[in-house]
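Dear Dr. V.,

Thank you for agreeing to look over these. As mentioned in my earlier message, I'm a first-year student in the group and I'm still getting used to reading structure tokens, so any feedback on how I've presented them would be very welcome. I ran two proteins. I've put each sequence directly above its structure. The first is here:
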Amino acid sequence: GVAEKDIDISLSDDQLTISGEKKSEETKEGETFHISERCFGSFSRSLKLPYKPEEKQISASFKDGILKVIIPRPTTLK
């Protein structure tokens, strides 16, 4: 329910934060009625990673409404 343009991903040291805003609008009309509903709200989720990732190796993709973030473990930890 969230568009790619409404999502923000940030990394500060070992703290990954994904935030965004959900917006939706629905209108229904009939012969004797007109209904317009709007839903919106912001969200934010943060998680502490068990290591400090190498920023150049992080990748993110958004396809079919699914956000995929890949954060490889640094080679020094393997």
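The second protein is here, in the same arrangement:
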Amino acid sequence: ILIMKKLGLMLMVLGLAGVAKAQEDQKAKGILDKMSEKYQSIPAYKTNFVYQLRNKVENIDEKFSGEIMVKGEKYVLIMSDQEIYNDGKTIWTLLKDANEVNIDYYMPDEGDLSPNNIYAAYKKGYRYRWVENKKVGSRTLDVVELQPENPKDPDKMFFKIILNIDNSDHTIHSWEMYDRGGNIFSYTISGFNPAFQADDSFFEFNAAKYPNVEVVDLR
């Protein structure tokens, strides 16, 4: 009888843990859905960010700033060493040091997570869970962790993604992406302009601005 009681108690505890996990997942989903709806409701926006790459084994700690302008699937990403223009069909990558621009077809890749698509990453191929609330200055952030549903999926570059989402306006404060090579890629939003406006031509590379650039067409 004692063994049966202990077994019954164990099953009850496991059952409650399962319920708690399901509730936790639903909480994470609600936070992620509100965050995604927030960004999808904005016709165009501009985000300033600080990017950091860390790898303790390789003794790497690099940091630089950038900005991205987004309009639907179109975006312009500007960093110190390169600029990327994407009009939804074609992508131009300007390598400033080499004075070279590579042209290719734009093919959305789930593994290529950047400030223009991080808000939708959770929708396909990821499990998610709410971790905690934390304070950063006067802001309260919901910490949500994403992991691939299939850890061996070759299309998933990262085995863990941590999103820090402002629970007052549902915008992303920062996120970290962990790969199996020991790299941690961090983005922290330093400015957000939801009133940004631009014509579609803004997202096309203007060769006239770079008359001596070498063009490498990879299409």
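From my reading of the second output: The longest strand covers residues 60-71. The CA atoms of residues 36 and 119 lie 5 Å apart. Does that match how you would interpret it?

Kind regards,
E.
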